[in-house]
Amino acid sequence: MIHDSVIGCVGSTPMVRLNRCFPEPDVEVLAKLEMLNPGGSMKDRPARFIIEQGLADGTLRPGMRLVESTSGNLGIALAMTADLHGLSFTAVVDPKTSPTNLRLLELFGADVEMVTDRDAAGGYLHTRVQRARELVDSLPNATQINQYANELNWRAYHETAGEEILNAVDGPLDYLVAAVSTTGSIQGIARRLREDHPNLKVVAVDAVGSVIFGSPAGPRQIPGFGASRVPEIYDPAEIDDVLHVADAESAAGCRRLLATEKVFAGGSSGAVIAGVEHLISRLEGPARIVTVLPDRGERYLDLVYDDEWVANLPDPWQQPEAAVKP
């Protein structure tokens, strides 16, 4: 198939068995390699879905400007997709956005707005969201994507990634293990998988310091993993279990995945590997686990793959939130 643009290449990412990373004989871990989307992350899916749905129903029109608070991946995906559809895009970022992501946003054609004031939670998310609203109010023909409240976010994964997993995997599925931020991907995939596998257990992997599931707020160093607000689209009934993973564990998971499988993945993928390890340690019988590896490792060379950065992280085992939580 020859596509009309790179947007047509979004999705249909491969799946691999992580038998070397998890050699337990009674456990099979299947990972969807979302870093192989053309924009480098799973966020290509909602970017394409939200924009194309908006153009189809008339809520978006060529010439409009999209505005979104983003730590990188969704912004890169929106910049790529918006420009190819005749739209403009402004990314609202903060000082924790990596230099690599800032440069990629610029190269993909985004206008970048940097906020520097921390919010009441000590982070920047609320400040970014507020600035995005201000820009929408002040710019002509502007609209906010609002990924934390946009129902099209989870629908994008329901209609694409969830369907692709079912097409690729024969037989039962026991667990879905996935990292969270907006909760769009885990809920969309879970809802589709449960249509065929109603007994599937859904395990969210969240960052220590994230407040999504009621834990206390704290500092987090890995972008796009965890959140300092509870997403409006989050439905507690969708999640069976939550595993909290500290930054150092995420970094160790990235390096384990690279060493064993030669999969060069980003920070939240390392968190998933740590989460799967926690889950396997308490399983009482055979299991088949499906997971999603969200983005590429190149964007984290100065973070989880940097020895000095890792050395300066606190010991995760000294943080009670790092333990498995029901």
UniProtKB/TrEMBL annotation:
CDD domains recorded: CBS_like
Keyword Transferase: yes
EC number: 2.5.1.140
Keyword Lipoprotein carried by entry: no
Keywords carried by this UniProt record: Pyridoxal phosphate, Transferase
Xref: Pfam families: PALP
Pathway(s) annotated for this protein in UniProt: Siderophore biosynthesis
UniProt-listed InterPro entries: Cys_Synth/Cystath_Beta-Synth, P-phosphate_BS, SbnA, TrpB-like_PALP, TrpB-like_PALP_sf
Alphabetical list of PANTHER family matching this protein: CYSTATHIONINE BETA-SYNTHASE
Designated name of the protein: N-(2-amino-2-carboxyethyl)-L-glutamate synthase
Lineage: Bacteria, Bacillati, Actinomycetota, Actinomycetes, Pseudonocardiales
Gene: sbnA
